[in-house]
Amino acid sequence: MIANRCPNSPTNDVSTDRRNQTREHADLDIAVAREHAQRLKELFARWGYVPQPRQDATDYNYVVAASSGGMVDVHVFEFDERGNNTYGIEYPKDSLTGTGVIAGHEVRCIAAEWMFRFKTAYPPKDKDLEDVRALGEKYGFEVPATHRRPAPRL
């Protein structure tokens, strides 16, 4: 299982140190290899997480939630022996090479440069502008003009 966003990245979902986040997150995004997906579903059920109805839910992308309020957005993927995506969310294999820390445990996650690429590949929402700014600032990435906040008007 791979945390979809690195906990020590400025756009993290899960860091227990909220100082690193640019904004609050309603859920934790995770990526899981297809070979482990069924076991993950079983564990979520045991822990009280239930699938949430969504129009766009698929076998490879769905959300589960617990009555405690915890919510997880699950992204299932599969690579062949050459590293080509053959199922589910089409992560480039090199994108899942980052590391972060959750509650003192090192986890794998999307590498910062790939998160930046993903976040700048589509027209941004307001929340994306801050995420891209923070990634650019922390890692020295050039923020494209399409993803910069306009200067405040005086």
What does the main sheet amount to? 6 strands, mixed
Identify the overall geometry.
Answer: globular
Oligomer type = single chain
Alpha carbon gap, first and last residue: 47 Å
- Indicate the percent of residues in helices: 10-25%
Question: Your description of this structure?
Answer:
This protein is α+β, with helices and mostly antiparallel strands and 154 residues long. Helix content is 23%, strand content 25%. It has three helices and eight strands; from the N terminus they run ββαββββββαα. The strands form two sheets. Strands 1, 2, 3, 4, 5 and 6 form a six-stranded mixed beta sheet that branches. Strand 5 and strand 6 form a beta hairpin. It starts with a strand and ends in a 15-residue tail after the last helix. About 9% of the residues have low confidence.
